[in-house]
Amino acid sequence: MTDLTTLTAHDLTDLLRAGDATSREITAAHLARARATDHGLHAWLAIDDERATAEADAADARLAAARAEGPEAVAALHPLLGIPVGLKDLVSVAGGQCTAGSRILEGYRAPFDSHVTERLRAAGAVSLGKTNMDEFAMGSSTEHSAFGPTANPWDLERIPGGSSGGSAAAVAAYQTPLAIGTDTGGSIRQPAAMCGITGIKPTYGRVSRYGIVAFASSLDQVGPFGRDARDAAALLHAVSGRDERDSTSAPVPVPDELLALPASDDEAATWIRGRRFGLPREYFVDGMEPGVAARVREAAAALEQAGAIVEEVSLPHTDYGLASYYIVAPAEASSNLARYDGVRYGHSVRGAGDYVANYLATRGGGFGPEVKRRIMLGTYALSAGYYDAFYLKAMKVRTLIKRDFDRLWEAGYDAIVAPTAPGTAWRFGEKLADPVAMYLADACTLPVNMAGLPGMSVPCGLADGLPVGLQLIGAPWSEATLFRAARAYEGLTAGEAWRSVRPRDLETLREPGLPTPAERAGAA
Amino acid sequence: MASLTRADVEHVAHLARLGLTPDELDRLQGEMNHILDQYATLAELDTDHIPPTAQVIELENILRDDVARPSMPPEAVLANAPERDGDAFVVPAILGGD
Question: Domain spanning B6-44: which superfamily?
Fold first, then answer.
């Protein structure tokens, strides 16, 4: 029998519907692979076999009941029925852990389901467990997880990107076909690029954040990872839509097109003819790896060859994205993270002295170094006398960044194509000593969050054996267009040799006695 | 931009209710000043007549119907409490004396 873990979610759906596999078998295969390969990868903070198996059985029962009812009932089922999904460990699942990668939430049990959890349950997806992440989603390498880093299946000596590095690595290592991440400055797109998979940060307001641990509330969005465009689109479809418990969740219809991307490569590729793409010159930043720039330019050339119009464009305020983001995000984080006071839940120190002493000890002991750095920056930026110089200034620059993009949509561009990140996955420890070097890894993704736009990363080849991501950026609510473009690009490049290259260390992960990523990082 | 002194860093840490060790304060002073240097680039932009953007999607105020719904049971709310007394959280005393 085929190894079920090597299949995409849409192939698994076909098998399920044809009666050639059960969700229980599919789930068991992924649980077994995750258990057998995670020692050297550490993509997961928790795997819940019991819960996953119960959800798989429930999915099989739903499918059987729909079959008994007739073909219409089967057609009405969501394609994710019975399909395994990993959840970044900041998504609340009632009764389960939700650490956000932090000691301060160790032992905490979520008292309710997030909106995303509810939607996945309604679709009948199977939750395998919780994936590793940078603490409170602050980081670009997953090295800031309080529970140790995740490795990259392409090279176990390297980081998988971050902050949703566990979700990206798990999908790339075939431990799960799908995973949920969040993206505040690039935390879905950058790890998708580093791990050679597909991920999208939807338009701000597309997915409700109810039950998702908050980082920076004017920037945070939830989104999917998959190994191809169709899979990521189906997962986005399942979790999108208005939820009155998140007042920023928008009453915008979820496009059914997300479930109707062409199965045929040739058919998908025909969409490209006559489309207009902008290639922003500012995204080819100083110090960019030449192999990355080359792959992205080749991808643009492939689109052009297929009949698209690709024009060099300018987003003149791109260079100000980093500085303005690193005011807005820490400011909002310092406010959001004020709730961790050790009174209602989480790590708590009592008896240190007066109540202030208890707060100082609780927070000083519970947060890791990157989180402390951001809280300090944000508190300073919002403190008396500095608001105008920092936060207000950054919000004005945000207007300029947004207007740069608006001009391109007004000029009729269907999407922007750009690098997702200036480089490929780096070695453990390489950027830990210099926070600004780490922040620069997100230079190409931060402006998209500042403007609230949908941004996607799709694999576009290898540089020195490591994956490169092509970023597709669209106008608000244009996710369906981005997925059409991504699917078309997959169709155009279906025959390319790099498409069939699998992560180099995929099989290594099964070897007994491998060092853990924490041990590798410690030795680095 | 003026650089942060050690006393500034201690003041911000107190505002943020972060208990930091002397080593952490030393390291943060250097790192924060390095990061603040990056912010200086924003001064190049004339933003006097640019309105700030606080939220990016053009949503008007959305009102929901004022209907009563069940809230979480007290047991679920208190399940994570570091310290509880019946149906109440035990909080550190904020007033002096016993």
Answer: Glu-tRNAGln amidotransferase C subunit, N-terminal domain (1.10.20.60)
- Among chain B residues, CA nearest to A390: B39
- Of the partner residues B21, B39, B59, the one whose CB lies closest to the CB of residue A327: B39
Per-residue pLDDT at A151: 98
CB contacts < 8 A, A to B, total 164
Q: Nearest CA to A399 among B60, B48, B36, B1?
A: B48
pLDDT grade for B46, boundaries at 50, 70 and 90: very high
Give the tens place of pLDDT for each residue, B61-84: 778 789 999 999 999 999 999 999
pLDDT at position A296 = 98
The reply to whether residue B62 touches residue A251, judged by beta carbons under 8 angstroms, is: yes
Residue A356 one-letter amino acid: V
Domains of chain A (ranges, CATH numbers): 23-318+399-493 (3.90.1300.10), 322-381 (no CATH)
Pick the residue from chain B with its C-alpha nearest to A249.
B59
Average pLDDT on A137-152 reads: 98
Catalytic residue flag (residue A334): no
Q: How far is A353 from chain B (nearest CA, A)?
A: 9
The answer, yes or no, to whether residue B57 has pLDDT greater than 90, is no
Say what the ipTM of the complex is: 0.95
B47 chain-A contacts, CB cut-off 8 A? 393, 396-397, 400
Give every CB contact of residue A13 below 8 A, 6+ residues apart in sequence. A79, A80, A81, A82, A83
- Catalytic site residue A163? yes
A376–B16 C-beta distance less than 8 A: yes
Domain-wise residue ranges, chain B: 6-44
Q: Which of A247, A379, A392 sits opposite B16 (nearest CB)?
A: A379
Residues A398-412 have pLDDT tens digits of 999 999 999 999 999
DSSP structure class, residue A388: I
Which tokens is A350 given? 């009592």
pLDDT digits (tens, 9 = 90+) for A253-270: 999 999 999 999 999 999
Q: Rg (Cα) of chain A, in Å, rounded?
A: 22
| Residue A419, φ and ψ in degrees, nearest 5 | -70, 150
* Min Cα separation A176/chain B (Å): 30
CA distance linking residue A135 with residue A367, whole number of Å: 8
What pTM does this model have? Answer: 0.97
